[in-house]
Amino acid sequence: METASSSTEQSSSAQSNREDATKRLFKSIYEQFLKDGLRPDAACARAIEELKNRTRDVNRNETPSRAENTKPCPDVAMEDDSTETKNENKPAEKEEPKIPIEPLYSASEMINKLAEAEEKKKSHYALIGTPLEMPSTLARCFRLEGNVNEVDWDGLRRFYDSVEESGGEAELAIIKAIREFRWKMFITTSKFRPEYEAIVMTFVNPHIASPSYLEDALPELCESLTQTVPVSIENDQNCNESQLVRAFAKLNSQDLLQIVQNLQQAITIRCLEIDTSREVHRDDRIISYVRTLRYLYLAALVDPEPMLEWKANLQSNSQTSQKPDQNNGMEVDNNSSRERPEAIETGINMEQENTNQTDDERVIDELLRSNLLTQAVSGGAMADPLCKKLGVNCVDVHRPKIPYSEFVNEVINNALHVERDFINLRYPDEEEFDAEEDDPQFSFFHHPFILNTEKKTKFLFYDSREKQVILRRQAEVFGRLSLDLPYLIINVSRDNIIQDTLIQLEMVIQDDPAALQKQFMVQFDGEQGIDEGGVSKEFFTLLLAEILKPDYGMFQYNEDTGYHQFNPVQFQETEKEYLLLGMLLGLAIYNSINLEISLSTCIFKKLLGGKGEFQDLEFAHPDVYRSLTQLLEADKDTVDSMCLTFSVTLKDMFGEAVEFDLCKDGRERAVDGLNKFEFVELYSDFLLNKSIEKSFTAFRKGFFLVTQRSPLRALFRPEELETIVIGQREYDWEELQETCEYDGGFSADHASIKLFWSVFNEMDDAEKRKFLEFYTGSDKVPVGGLARLKTKIQRSGPDSDRLPTAHTCFNILLLPAYSERDKLKTKLFKAMENAKGFGMI
Fold first, then answer.
1. Domain range holding 752?
2. Which of 281, 302, 323 is the last residue of a domain?
3. What is its EC number (predicted)?
């Protein structure tokens, strides 16, 4: 009995000591918050929450035996602590416990409170501000009467509109509530996490970007959000940034768009406010806005726009009807992985080796496999890790809930100095870096959704130039000990351009694959001249013209779309040619050269790791898309009357029909109202993927050999990659004239220049494109428009019978000072007609 009594006394004494220690700690934390400028009630709330966090951390660090005998202080324990303890070791994939929501105030009640404050001159903050300052309290307000688990978003918007109409004290109460709200985010241990929904409810305020909120409420909210979310929950598998994104994703497109536009407005105003000497990539307020915008961007990808019923059925069929025994009757690599990103990007299998490969093919696959392993060890691609956690990729989302264009801010694009941002990212200057204000981890390079294609291209340009300079310096350092050159130079003949290029690039792959990322230069046999860019342009033009010839049968040209399509029916082995074309595509990107080939956006989607799907047919094969759409919308009787089977008929290069089964015994299986979704899925997959799989795999390998260490896949969407490869499709000829410079005695007012532009303006579009090719070496418009060409017209002597010539490497037109318009026109057109291999210096 004495032992039991002694034990009880010791336990009571220990409990009393813990309570005293807790009170002292609370007082210390409370006084510290008062010194930080918090009012007493806010300081008290913060101190309680801080004490809870510290108690939880201590309990977690104790041994199991001690934790069992230790009870948390009654003044500190939360009602959710038991829930957390029970679920602490639960697997992440299991659903979180459902905690019932107890509604506090409905939208109508909050609006009535606002009216009461107006009529009876009561405290606005006490009536409408207090419920909004605490995340857990706000999450219990504005609930639907019939379903308390759903937020009354319409009622919430009506409340915010009523506050805006009242103005004055009502608006100040909301602003004050936001200031308090930001202190209380993510400081509870509850697994329910009402803060996520409460944050979204705060941002739904359509007036949050107005001047009164922009002074400090919105900036502080965004700053606290982007600093607190990743830090406070980075080790919690259930409650992390993905939960916040999913909370935003629950909004309808109108509300989500409103928040995006509010943040864009705040970014624009901030760009105009800051001093011109302050870089936008170093401004803490802009950084917090952009990081908040990132959550909304991902939310638009998590839950894309609603689909029509037949589209939803098609997607459902795509996810559930994948059958491993389906065979389309063609040579398909059944071992190619569709789960591993590296297999999708390169077309090689990391685990299996093809014994039928040639020595050259084996070298290429080993090289790619080695580089993939290196990337895996070093952290992989530069994509947003949150995208992987959410399972989203802009490559796969054709139409997000909010259009991609809404996330691009042209004001910030105009203010951004890409070169400085890139240099700061790669080589941070510690002397200029301000530890209190600057964020060394932030760069627009990692937030490409807000950038236009031109700025992304500049990031890619600096990345490629950095690698080329490094390789050049290495060659210079070791040049005395080896024959290593600072450039990738190939020597080809015009008559045998494909074979010469193939042979030399294969030698490069085997000897020094890294040389593919050196600056590319070309020499033609028997021709004098230094390649400053113009010869390379001509090389790409000639080589592509040869590859696209019908004799090779590699491509089919669709006059309706203007695209060259991979030929699904081939009569000869052309894998090497496709490999070469893929390498040319990568080399052109690395050397800022637009190619004379138009490929559908679907091809670029597949290059970025995506897969061709039904919606991609809309632009790749519009006639097929229209027919299949009619089939999906047709009723059962109409489908039966079509007499379709699970087979498809294509034509080879000689016009002969070739039939393929979409599944086993497809020609014997009829399409009906029930299996039409499966038919459309198999048809689309066959046309865009399986029928060209062998050719495209070789093409993709070649592309990846050059771009494997490039940020290409992290920066660009498929349609943007298409633009940087083939150039813009719109020609602003006035821009060409407005940005043109003059030299050698010429000016915009010179008589010969006026004659020249009068002749040019009378040309039709085809003639203007022909002139552009003569002038610059390509008839394509680079990303950023014709102004990016920086063209110049230089006087090349007095009036004479000589033809105009062009330095295509530097986009310079050498024009004699013709005094007669007809003479200038005749000489210019004659020079344009003989531009191939003539006059292009």
1. 733-833
2. 302
3. 2.3.2.26
